[in-house]
Amino acid sequence: MAKRLAAAEKEVLVEVVRFTQKNGLKGSDGGWKEFLSRNDKKFGDSVSDPRKRSRDVLLAFLQTFSKDFQKGWKVLRIGEVSSLVSSSAMLAIDCEMVLCDDGTEAVVRVCVVDNNLEVKLDILVNPSKAITDYRTHITGVSKKDLGVTSSLVDVQKSLKRILAKGKILIGQSLYRDLCALKIDYSQVIDTAYIFKYANLPTTASASLNSLCKSVLGYSVREDGEPHNCLKDAEAAMNLVLAKLKHGFHDPIKVAASCVSESDALKLLAHRIPVHLPCQELCKVFSGNPSIDDKIDSRIRGEFYSTCISFNEIDEVEKAFEELDGQMTKDSGGRLQKYVLMKRDSGDVVSFYVRKMVYASQPNQFEFPKKRPQPTEEAEPKKEQADGDQQKKKRKSKKHVN
């Protein structure tokens, strides 16, 4: 496993670090933020997003974990792969996980189907540690369902058998399932990344349910309905089969919000100079905004960011629309405004403001890099036409004289 990490791309290391964060795992230098505080004298843990850290820093953190961290992992070797991969070489998987006493997640159900949607594996797993939350409203699994003897090791053995001969493993956000299963397998297709999205940020991916609505024309589940492990595996397979058959090379629109309902009531202000008190930001927004600087503000060197909260979604839309600023895009392709604010002291400061969620396609607009270019009107306004006539009269008088 250590050799695999050393040879891994940065994106893979980012996901492994996130896995340690989500499960509260700690190496010899503590968790991720503790490691940064102890080893980065310049930034500390102020820049804790793994994506914003170098590959060397990510790898150095993961190397602080002992071999016990890798205990129980299985590396599944890829069999001989045909040069012409057919749909018969594919298997789709989905897992359900519960929360355990130690803060980690454990697999409780695993389903695998082939390209004909024939069930190859459907097994309940009894975790080897105490369960804090069965998450029944999500997993559909309760305490009474786990009176079984199958273990994670049994599942690993079954997967090793059915993934032989170069099979391709399919799943939605597949790395989560593989981490929970403690399986290292490299021949995969992740349905979250095989489509281009027209109305999502470039860094975001759609949910399985949203993809099925947009690509296949049906919902995997209704709102509030728990997950069905078998249906989710079937849906992942159907998405890949649809991709192979129809291409879907053009971006698709998905009907899903990337943020929670509470976040939809906020605007994000970022690249704010640290010398500007966050409460002064309220002056540039309409409505009745509030700022929780203790929770939302984040310092990044000479700048910080914070969220401006509103009571209604209409207030958010109105405040952003009426905000005086040049429209641009952020690094994720989302619409934002570049705002100049004059303080009572006479100083002028600048920062950016964007919505937390967009219902329309951000790329349908073209934005200037520096400043808006003047538009040409088909017909001059009456005031402008009158002004032009007066200029011509003055010029003609000068020539006569």
Automatic annotation (TrEMBL):
InterPro entries membership: REX1-like_exo (IPR034922), REXO1/3/4-like (IPR047021), Ribonucl_H (IPR013520), RNaseH-like_sf (IPR012337), RNaseH_sf (IPR036397)
Recorded GO CC terms: nucleus
Gene Ontology molecular function terms on file: exonuclease activity; nucleic acid binding
Residue ranges, compositional bias (Basic and acidic residues): 378-390
Keyword field contains Nuclease: yes
Keyword terms, alphabetized: Exonuclease, Hydrolase, Nuclease, Nucleus
Protein name per the record: Exonuclease domain-containing protein
